[in-house]
C-alpha cells in the first residue's frame, strides 16, 4: 500500500483467465513482466479459484477475478480506479481478448493483434509454438526478456499429506483428455505391487471418477483426495510425490514446476505444444501420434486411447524404481509401436 498522500503505483493488467495448466505455462512470461516493471503493481485477470496459485508464482501482486464459459474472453468489469498503465494479452490471439483490455483504456497494450494507432505491428501468432515459448516470444517482440525455462515454483508452505506416494490424477477438464478409468486402476495395481503407496486426486465434480478408479484398484477412501484440494495442499502433495501420473492437465504442469517426476498421457494435442521440457529426464510424455484432435471434446481422443497400460506401467516404474531396468523416458518421444494399440 502506498503511504498516505503518495501517488498510487502504476498497474500492469495481464489477462490469462483460463485454467491451472494455462497459468503455470505462463509463469515464465509473468516473471518476465515482473522484472520489466519492478515499480508497477502486477494484476492478473484470472478465475478466483486460481488466486493462491497465481500468488505462489511470486510474479503477481493481486488478481482481478475473471472467467467466462468454455475458455472464452471475460468482461473485465471488476477493474477499479485509474486505467492500467500497461495491459498484456496472454489469453489468446484476439481480437476479443485485445478488445476486453482496450475497453479499460490502458496507455499501452501488448498483444498478438490489433495494435493501437501509432504502434508498430504486433508479432505474428504461430500455431506451432509451444505454449511457454509463445508468450515469451510475444514479450520479446515488445522488448521484454522472458525465459521459457523459468518454471520452478517455491517449495510449498505446508507439508505433503502423503510424502513419497505415487499421485494419480485421472481427471481432466474435458473428456477428450481422460484416459480410461480402468487403465488407471491397472497401473495403480502394478505400483501397489512394488510396495509404493498411491493417492488418487480429483477436482470438483470428479468424485465419482476418483471413487471408481480407487475401488477398481482396491484403494481405501483415505487414499483418495477428491473434490479439489486447496492449492497449498495440492501443491505440497505433488511436490512430495515420488511420481505423478496424469493426462495433459494442470497437475502435469505443477509436477514440472516442482521438479517431481511425472508421466503425462497426451492425445488430442501433441506434447511438443503443451508437454514438459523435452530435455528433462524427470518427465515422460507418452503419445501415440495421430491427427490433431479437439482438446475440449466430449469423448476420449482416439490417440489417447491407443496408449496401452503396459507402456504406462513401465514408465511409472522406471521413475520410482530406477533399478528396474525400464529407465525413465523423457520429453515428447512417441510411444513405441508395441505401446500403441
Compact overview of the structure:
The chain is of the alpha/beta class and 341 residues long.
SSE layout and pairings?
Layout: E1 11-15, H1 20-25, H2 27-36, E2 41-46, H3 51-56, E3 62-65, E4 86-89, H4 96-102, E5 108-110, H5 131-141, E6 166-169, H6 181-192, E7 198-201, H7 207-217, E8 224-225, H8 231-239, E9 243-247, H9 250-258, E10 262-266, H10 271-274, E11 283-287, H11 302-305, H12 309-320
Parallel strand pairs: 1-2, 1-4, 2-3, 4-5, 6-7, 6-9, 7-8, 9-10, 10-11
Helix pairs in contact: 2-5, 6-7, 6-12
Describe this structure in words.
It is built from 12 helices and 11 strands. It has 2 domains: 11-141, 3-Layer(aba) Sandwich (Rossmann fold), CATH 3.40.50; 166-339, 3-Layer(aba) Sandwich (Rossmann fold), CATH 3.40.50. α7 (207-217) links the parallel β7 (198-201) and β8. The N and C termini lie far apart (58 Å). It is of the alpha/beta class and 341 residues long. The chain has helices at 20-25, 27-36, 51-56, 96-102, 131-141, 181-192, 207-217, 231-239, 250-258, 271-274, 302-305, 309-320; strands spanning 11-15, 41-46, 62-65, 86-89, 108-110, 166-169, 198-201, 224-225, 243-247, 262-266, 283-287. The relative contact order is 0.12. Mean pLDDT is 91; it is low at 324-333. The longest helix has 12 residues, at 181-192.
